[in-house]
Design brief:
Blueprint: E1 2-3, E2 13-16, H1 25-29, H2 38-41, E3 44-47, E4 54-66, E5 83-93, H3 98-159
């Protein structure tokens, strides 16, 4: 049981799993007719490990009145120190809505593939640019060397 009295302005409310599943045996000893079934009354979550997005969930909880000592009130002594189940709920999402499913597939399948394509394309483009730059520098140096060699030869011939 989780006492949430302070969350509800002092109203004596306690939360539990339906039918007091996994409750303290002392609580179960004072409950008649409750048949907790772990398969039917336990909450579960299926969460994608990559994104943290819940793929499926079933949250089950029971709202109980958690009465304290009522012996000071006439005809209420028999309700002292009792936990009275009032209602239990199930909030369920059996799967992602189709609008979220398409986004989920886009974010987890298509974008990583596109990321790899862009990364490798940019790497290849950078490599090509590097080769072009090296070739251009080599040709420029080669051209300058050829010109210098030609001028040197012309000077040598003119001096002889």
């Amino acid at each position: 049981l989780i006492d949430v009295t302070s969350c509800y302005y002092g109203f004596p409310i306690a939360l539990s799993y339906p039918h007091f599943l996994d409750a303290d045996p002392k609580v179960l000893a004072h409950v008649n007719g409750s048949r907790p079934d772990p398969k039917a009354h336990r909450s579960h979550f299926m969460i994608n490990p990559v994104s943290g997005l819940p793929l499926e969930l079933s949250v089950k909880f029971q709202i109980n009145l958690a009465l304290n000592d009522l012996s000071s009130m006439a005809h209420c002594e028999k309700f002292s120190n009792l936990v009275i189940p009032t209602v239990w709920f199930e909030i369920m999402m059996p799967g992602l809505p189709k609008t979220l499913l398409s986004r989920f597939i886009f974010y987890l399948k298509i974008l990583p593939f596109g990321d790899q394509v862009v990364k490798h394309s940019l790497l290849a483009f950078g490599g090509i640019l590097l080769l072009v730059a090296i070739t251009k520098v080599s040709l420029t140096l080669s051209s300058a060397y050829s010109s210098a060699y030609r001028i040197s030869n012309e000077l040598r011939e003119s001096l002889w």
